[in-house]
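Task card 7
Instruction: Convert sequence to structure tokens.
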Amino acid sequence: MSTRNTFHSNGRALSYLDFGGAGRPLLALHGHMSEGASFTELAAALAPEWRVIALDQRGHGYSDRAADYSRAGYLADIEALLNHLGLDQVVALGHSLGAINAYQFAARHPERITALINAEGPAVLGLDGVNPLQFVLALPHEAPTRAQLIAEMGPMAAHFGALVRERADGTWSLPFHPADIVDSEHHVHGDHWADWTATTCPALLLRGTQGVIPTDQAEAMTTRRPGTRLAELDTDHFIYAADPTGFAKHVTEFLAEL
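Output:
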């Protein structure tokens, strides 16, 4: 059972799900075009030993849009959430964008992160200048009715139709703005090796065999960072959804050894 709560970071309202319990706190950070609720199944698998807190990161889910999607902005939101909850230390788990946010936050605040679970978060990406999320600019963001929004999506409704929701004013929208996603993806590109290797707390790198981390990069991320183990699932980038049982198994086994 989760509760939805709100806090403020630099004047913006951000939403998060707290799955509760007396277990050790685990901060879960989703990827682009997702939200905290994507960790609902994992939270159930980890209870009662772990209390999962899943943030709707800026511009996603029920959190406010932001003026920018810089690295510093995302990391400030994480710090604000931990301070709001009064949590000095947590295990941080992230997928994709969320994984990079997690290990970059750990690099800047190593005293607050006791372990890392990196699901499909590369140490270097986008150096070819290509933004793979550019296609979302063709998506409509809002419409007066759900049926109209779905219709305007065309073929992309098969992938994004289930995400639409009714807002307080009665209109319907996606839980993200396409322009924000493209901007955020642009800012997350770069060479982040220094951040990935900055900490030595225990870390689990979870890679989908058809995901975004090349085999050689995954091996280097494991060997170049002390205390890191690699586990692979035969899935695409969205490993938590493609193989929720396998995903939960690897996470649970890693956490049990902490």
